[in-house]
Design a protein that fits this description.
Structural class: alpha/beta
CATH topology of the largest domain: 2-enoyl-CoA Hydratase, Chain A, domain 1
Radius of gyration: 26 Å
Shape: elongated
Number of helices: 13
CATH superfamily of the largest domain: 2-enoyl-CoA Hydratase, Chain A, domain 1
Strand order of the largest sheet: 8-5-3-2-1-11
Length: 332
């Protein structure tokens, strides 16, 4: 009887120790040179849900972005602020940047970190065509003030430098990782994930007003959570070069269909390509004067095919296509 009791106690201690010494988990998401858009929001939302199901100790978001849509950014920030699992935003790798929308995402994290030779800043909101266009001055001020109020509330919650984040919105200032750490815009500098985990070990993190957590990241299990195939395809479509090529292929496909009898593959391919390019144009900072010039150039090519003008329309089409291509996307 005594032997059975001792064996039972040993078994219970073994089970308890296995739970006690089980490796904690870190879910790692990767935003690699992506424009912040609805697809990226969906990916981060799924990543946070994955972390909850895996009972992960922390979520690490590797971030490299030139910016993106404010609406998608707001949704991502909302997810991070309400996360019960500590979120670490890591501007990575070297040479990466957290520009525009990336500023809001970085400062909203429980812990913000940057790798060497990275930058953060330039968060002034702009319209999709890089111009306020017909938006009157009063509405423009409302948009700016609303963004300033929002970013100030994020900075207060995470105890970050309010003056700097407001300057990033108002004056589009940018700084490197050393300056960001000095100004208390971020919490840490690390060259890679292993060094980041080393610096996080034992760190106390405020989850909400009533809850704190101490991180134990030594020998932590890393679980990479990547975009699925559908998300990768949709995210690739918002690449400016791909969107431009799709638009040209779409017009040329329809042009071929118009100049040849019947309706077949070129017409279907052209319509699909145009729809995909228009999907990208809803997200990219498109200059619609550039789009208009490209469309005009393609129309002139059609006219050249239908009427003998000895190359006059071809020359005009070439000029329109070149100028339109240069103006199509804002490169900032």
């Amino acid at each position: 009887m005594r032997k059975k009791f001792v064996a039972f106690i040993l078994f219970v201690l073994f089970i308890f120790s296995s739970f006690l010494y089980a490796k904690s988990k870190a879910i790692v998401l990767n935003i690699d040179d992506c424009i912040i858009n609805p697809v990226v929001y969906e990916y981060i939302h799924q990543g946070l849900k994955k972390a909850s199901l895996e009972e992960a100790s922390i979520i690490i978001i590797k971030l490299d972005t030139p910016g993106g849509l404010l609406e998608s950014t707001r949704k991502i920030v909302k997810e991070i602020l309400n996360s019960k699992i500590p979120v670490v935003v890591f501007v990575y790798p070297q040479g990466a940047r957290a520009a525009s929308a990336g500023v809001f995402i970085t400062i909203s994290a429980h812990i913000s970190c940057m790798s060497p030779s990275t930058t953060i800043g330039a968060a002034h909101p702009v319209m999709m065509n890089n111009s306020w266009g017909n938006v009157d001055e009063e509405l423009r001020k409302k948009i700016i003030n609303d963004t300033l109020s929002w970013v100030e509330s994020i900075a207060k919650k995470r105890s970050r430098n309010i003056n700097w984040v407001k300057k990033a919105v108002e004056k589009s200032v940018s700084i490197d990782e050393e300056e960001a750490l000095k100004l208390k815009v971020i919490d840490l500098i690390a060259k890679d994930i292993p060094q980041l985990l080393e610096k996080l070990d034992g760190r106390r993190v405020k989850i909400d007003d009533l809850k704190y957590a101490t991180l134990h990241t030594k020998d932590m299990q890393i679980i990479e959570f990547n975009m699925n195939l559908r998300q990768k395809i949709l995210n690739a479509l918002v690449n400016p070069q791909i969107a431009y090529i799709l638009m040209l292929l779409g017009f040329f496909g329809l042009l071929y269909e118009v100049t040849h009898p019947g309706f077949g593959f070129p017409g279907i391919f052209g319509i699909v390509s145009l729809i995909l390019s228009f999907y990208a144009f809803q997200i990219l900072p498109v200059n619609y004067a550039g789009v208009a010039l490209i469309v005009l150039g393609l129309v002139l090519l059609v006219v050249e095919l239908l009427t003998p003008t000895f190359g006059i329309f071809t020359l005009g089409a070439g000029i329109c296509l070149v100028l339109g291509s240069l103006m199509l996307f804002n490169q900032k």
